[in-house]
Amino acid sequence: MDGFSLLPDDTLSKILSFLETKDVMQTMLLSKRFKSLWKLVPRLEFDDMRVTEHEYAKFWRFVDRAFMSHEGQALQNLHLKLRRQCTDGDVAIWVGTAVKRGLMELEFMNYNFSWTASMPKSLYTCGTLVVLKLLNVKLDVPDLVCLRSLKTLSLKYMNRSEGSSSLLRLLPNCPVLEDLFIHLTPYPNPAMPFKIVVPSLKRLSLFDSCQDSGITGLVLDAPCLKFLHVVDRWSHSRNSQSINMNEVVEDNMGVILNRPEKLLRSLASVEHILLCLSAPEVVYPVGSCFSRLKFLEVCPCKSEWLDLFMRLLKDSPSVKSIKINRCHCVLYPPRPYIRPHWNRPSSVPRCLSSNLEFFKWINYEGTQEEKELSTYILKTAVCLKKASFTAKSNDDKKKLELLRELSLSRRASSTCELVFN
Question: Is the pTM here over 0.90, yes or no?
Answer without folding.
Answer: no
